[in-house]
Write a structure and sequence with these properties.
It is built from 27 helices and 20 strands. It is of the alpha+beta class. Strand 13, helix 22 and strand 14 form a beta-alpha-beta unit. The structure holds adenosine-5'-triphosphate (ATP).
């Protein structure tokens, strides 16, 4: 068969005595020839085509049906159907090679096939299947490699004729051929085919720093408070803008140049014909406008997903609208020119118009050979490019300061929504003025009798303020308050109610308090996360109301929720924040290694792992290290040891102890052990108010002037235990009681330790005591007492 095909320039079927459906292909399993296989393709009578097959002869033919390969002996009966098969098998056979999962080698690609359908002596009906994508042409003899339908039809017609008339018969018409055609150069004018809309989407969607990617970067950093974190460590708004602007601009410009160069190399008229300098100015100014728009839009979004969804909607929607309106306006010619100019104020429209103009020159050039757009063409009043360039550049100049202002105003330290800024500008609303406690929303704030230590602290603050000595202290808080206004009918939440305290350098102040006491709200105000509702605080003499920028340069923060870049390593984080603090070169490397060591992150590959692979505890330790890096004079730590195992906590504590030598630290914690270990002074906050302040010893002495006696007996002896305690200390107080176990507070002035021991020993002779203990007051007892006391007095009021 192979020889036959090879020897003939056409498919000459003269040696065949019967015809059938025939498939030509390669690698046909079971086929001895390697590329020819009779197949059984139709439910209709079909004929097997075999060389030298005379009526009555037996021939063995390979059969492949689905995945089953077999051989079948059949008798040649000229003109009669030899095999029937269903049309499903035709498909099975024809497309078998292309099934999913087949390797390229395993593809049984069929080059062509004939289904003679209901052909007989009187009726010639052939369906020709021809594989135009046939890849293994080299295996097929030349004529078939180039086989086209006319050749193929000619071949089968000859075969049919010979079948009917005998092998001696030959068609006079040797073969048919495609109509000869004058050679033409295949030109592919991209701009004509795809139109400006395609380019519009290429520019806004494929540019590496496309608008929605820029927006995503900016909003992501906002959403995850990374921008705030950078700012809190000294990266000002100006440098942030410059860094990001240049980053976006450089990437996009390089891409733009490569885009135009490649477009020209592959011969796209759009790029090749038009003046490169016009293209550059057009694309470059649009990139700048796009960057400014991304900054502007980022001020209005706080969630990446929303920003992305809106950006895509804008890109596709405005692109389609621009395509529809601008094309209709220009080509319809019914609308005045200035209408189009007005529309072009929308950036997507100006981009479309510019691309449209460039595209028009490209199309004209490929049709008439005229040159592309030149600067002189911009004088032509029909050419909209000049208007577009003016609009884009003007818009960029106007929106640049607007975007900067909105971004600046909505960033941390100045936070207010762009809408409230507009309201503020319109109304000249004195939002930043100081208001008194009783003025908050016109509500009367309950001012209760305060504890002596709190009053003393306030007096100290007043004195510092009067003498204008705030710069001599690390932190001075003056009646700081935060009210979260209730939404949807919910009442307002007075989260922080008049906190006043003065913190000298070198002191670590611990803020204790139950959940919801207002600790995080207090820290959030101090670090510029939220604006105080009233009052003020001074950090190194700078007001948190007005000078947050100055405060940031000497501040370190370990927020309650870690604010880290998932894709950066721990070392990269510290290097970045170290640089913000002015470190560089070998001193930076040294400090980074020291920081990593101090929080137990230097070993086990931790420094160079991406943060997304860190455990919760590792993230926490990294956050603490970030807060301490550089020369931060005031450091805030919001529950720094949350989620740490005991060993990590200990190493963290020693890092903090080490760090507090020359700076002030304010930390919130729920761990009394941590508070006592790290803090020089402690305050307890309940319902937004400070309840007490002092050294741990002072607080224990002040609030814990009692011993705690705990005793467990059988329940029937409970009364006797109570009698014993009463005899020892008449003003004792039972604080706990559960099935035989009781806890009593015995004022120290009434009960001496030796008396208690002796009394219990003689009691044990009469009553079976299962367990007992006498303890001095702990900080935990103080905390419970103060918190409970404050809550019950709040309920009473
Ligand atoms: N953004 C907010 N809007 C409304 N209420 C808030 C907001 N943030 C905090 N609150 C409320 O203010 C009060 C103080 O919350 P805050 O988070 O400051 O307490 P906390 O002492 O830090 O608590 P925890 O120990 O659980 O962290 C709580 O009642 C809380 O529900």
């Amino acid at each position: 068969m192979q020889n036959l095909l090879t020897s003939s320039p056409l498919l000459n079927l003269s040696d065949y005595t019967s015809i059938s459906s025939l498939l030509l292909g390669t690698d046909v399993p079971g086929s001895s020839t390697g590329f020819v296989e009779p197949a059984f393709i139709s439910a209709r009578p079909i004929y097997v085509l075999q060389p030298q097959c005379k009526s009555g002869d037996s021939v063995t033919i390979p059969i492949t049906v689905g995945s089953v390969n077999a051989q079948k002996e059949i008798k040649c009966v000229q003109g009669l159907p030899l095999w029937r098969n269903s049309s499903i098998t035709i498909n099975e056979e024809t497309f078998r090679g292309y099934r999913k999962g087949k390797t390229a080698k395993g593809i049984n690609e069929i080059a062509m096939g004939y289904d003679f359908q209901d052909s007989n002596e009187n009726h010639f009906n052939v369906l020709t299947l021809y594989n135009s994508t046939y890849e293994n042409a080299s295996f097929i003899p030349m004529p078939f490699a180039l086989l086209r339908i006319p050749h193929s039809l000619n071949a089968v017609s000859n075969a049919y004729l010979q079948l009917i008339q005998g092998s001696g018969v030959k068609m006079l018409l040797d073969f048919t051929k495609e109509m000869p055609k004058q050679a033409t150069r295949l030109t592919f004018d991209f701009s004509a085919v795809a139109g400006p809309l395609f380019f519009e989407w290429v520019v806004v969607l494929l540019f590496p720093k496309k608008i929605q990617v820029m927006l995503t970067y900016l909003v992501y950093e906002k959403q995850h408070k990374l921008r705030t974190m950078m700012k809190m460590h000294g990266l000002g708004d100006g440098p942030y803008w410059i860094i990001y602007y240049m980053y976006f601009l450089i990437f996009s410009t390089v891409y733009l140049i490569v885009f135009v160069i490649f477009g020209s190399i592959i011969g796209v008229n759009f790029f090749k014909i038009n003046d490169y300098s016009i293209q550059f100015v057009f694309f470059f100014s649009f990139i700048n406008l796009q960057i400014v728009l991304a900054f502007l839009a980022s001020s209005f979004f706080s969630k990446v997903n929303t920003a992305q969804a809106i950006a895509y909607l804008y890109i596709f929607g405005s692109g389609l609208m621009a395509g529809y309106l601008i094309r209709n306006f220009i080509e319809g010619g019914k609308f005045p020119r200035h209408w189009i100019t007005v529309l072009e104020i929308i950036p997507a429209f100006s981009l479309y118009r510019g691309l449209y103009e460039l595209g028009q020159y490209a199309v004209r050039s490929s049709e008439t050979g005229s040159p592309g757009m030149r600067w002189s063409d911009l004088n032509d009043h029909m050419n909209g490019m000049r208007d577009v360039l003016i609009i884009i550049i003007l818009e960029w100049l106007v929106l640049l300061p607007v975007a900067y202002y909105f971004d600046y105003a909505s960033s941390v330290g100045h936070r207010s929504s762009p809408l409230s800024i507009i309201k503020h500008l319109l109304k000249k609303d004195p939002t930043w003025r100081r208001i008194t406690a009783n003025e908050i929303d016109g509500k009367d704030v309950h001012i209760e009798m305060e504890k002596v230590d709190i009053i003393k602290e306030r007096e100290a603050v007043d004195q510092v303020l009067q003498q204008q000595q705030t710069s001599g202290y690390a932190v001075v808080c003056d009646d700081l308050r935060k009210v979260y206004h209730g939404k949807d009918g919910n009442p307002d939440k007075f989260a922080v109610q008049g906190v006043s305290l003065a913190l000298p350098y070198g002191e670590c102040l611990g803020i204790l308090g139950p959940n919801g006491a207002g600790k995080s709200s207090f820290i959030s105000m101090m670090i510029g996360f939220v604006k105080p509702t009233s009052g003020n605080a001074f950090v190194r003499g700078f007001s948190i109301q007005n000078d947050m920028e100055k405060i940031y340069s000497s501040m370190g923060v370990c927020p309650q929720n870690d604010m880290l870049w998932e894709t950066l390593t721990g070392r990269e984080h510290l290097q970045f924040y170290g640089r913000l603090k002015g470190l560089s070169g070998s001193s930076l490397d040294l400090v980074v290694d020291e920081s990593l060591r101090s929080v137990n992150l230097l070993h086990g590959g931790a420094p160079d792992k991406q943060v997304k692979k860190y455990s919760g505890g590792m993230r926490r330790r990294l956050s603490v290290a970030i807060s301490l890096i550089g020369d931060a004079k005031v450091v805030y730590m919001d529950e720094p040891s949350t989620g740490l195992d005991p060993a990590s906590r200990k190493s963290l504590w020693s890092a903090v102890k080490q760090a507090k030598q020359d700076r002030a630290i304010i930390l919130t914690t729920h761990s009394m052990e941590e508070a006592e270990t790290l803090c020089d002074r402690l305050c307890i906050m309940v319902d937004g108010k400070l309840q007490c302040i002092g050294t741990p010893k002072e607080l224990i002495a002040r609030y814990g002037g009692y011993y705690v006696l705990t005793m467990t007996t059988l329940p029937e002896f409970e009364q006797e235990v109570e009698d014993l305690v009463r005899r020892l200390s008449p003003s004792s107080r039972k604080v706990y009681h559960l099935s035989g176990t009781q806890k009593h507070e015995l004022p120290k002035q009434e009960a001496r330790i030796s008396d208690v021991f002796m009394a219990v020993e003689s009691f044990k002779k009469r009553v079976e005591v299962q367990a007992w203990g006498l303890a001095d007051t702990t900080m935990e007892d103080v905390f419970v007492k103060v918190a409970k006391g404050a809550q019950s007095s709040e309920e009473l009021s």
